[in-house]
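Lab channel / #folding
Pinned by the channel admin:
"Please post every new chain as: sequence first, then the structure tokens as a reply. Keep commentary short and put observations after the output so the thread stays searchable."

First post following the new format, from NK:
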Amino acid sequence: MKNIIFCFLFLSIFIYSSTHASDKWTITNTVLEISSQTLRFIDFKQTLQIAENPDKYSERNPLLGEHPSKEKVYLYFISGAIGHFMISYFLPEPYRTAFQASNIVLTLPVIAGNFQIGLGVRF
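Reply from TO:
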């Protein structure tokens, strides 16, 4: 059920439309945002495994703490996903593309490190 809620919120941010964006949203922005949000979802699923196995894993993100609750993980990632989209949407170019791309570059090593310690992605 929580996965359905997360997916619904994830998809609903793309439905949101407004005339207040600084620059026109491009196909490149869409690809970058979907890529960023997909990586965020993978990190979310891995972090849930950390929360479910505090005896086996510890979280490195200081905002979540060493052994976060599942509720804290959900709140962090849902608010982060919405916040990332909103910031991306309202940033002017070229800052928007740089913001989206930097998020991808920063998230990839985190996910890779999680895979190296045995965290996969379960659906």
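NK: The longest helix spans residues 27-52.
TO: also worth noting, The chain has one domain: 2-6+27-116.
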